[in-house]
Amino acid sequence: MQAYLTDVIIESKSDLVGTVLNEEELTSHLDLDVLRIFKPNRDSSAKRSDVKLEVGDILRIRGSADEINKLLQREDISLRPPKKWIDVDLEQSRDAAESMGISTQPLLFAVTYAASLSFVTPFGYQTNTLIYGADNYKFTDFTKIGLPLNILFWIIATVVIPYIWPF
Known about the structure:
Shape: flat
Number of helices: 6
Order of helices and strands: EHEEHEHHHH
Structural class: alpha+beta
Number of strands: 4
Number of domains: 2
Strand order of the largest sheet: 2-3-1-4
Helix content: 40-55%
Oligomer: single chain
Distance between the termini: 42 Å
């Protein structure tokens, strides 16, 4: 079985707030691994077994597509917005372009464009997840349609980006 990663945010209405992760049903009733706890604007160097969950904490979760989908059915957590994931990629692209002495525009646009191509899995974007759960689609339905779309847009981007923004 293939494992997937996703980040989820603890919402204010969550019954997870104030619990210690190792005591929580999140890991005992679902076959998921919590790989990391991000505590925005707070020190997160404590042992994971001692960390109490708070509103806004972000959990990096690993598990099967079915287990992640079960987790996302909860109303007290939400997916982390994909925008947050690309911030580091944008900075690395800018640094790479500057070190090679080329324009930053094509690389920055390529990273931004790639981040918006989330057709292959139901967890790539929040709308995909909503459709996946609501209409009883299978994980492979997203792959059958999404993979060819991603390949098509990748080819288009490879041709169009350098044409519009030369290196």
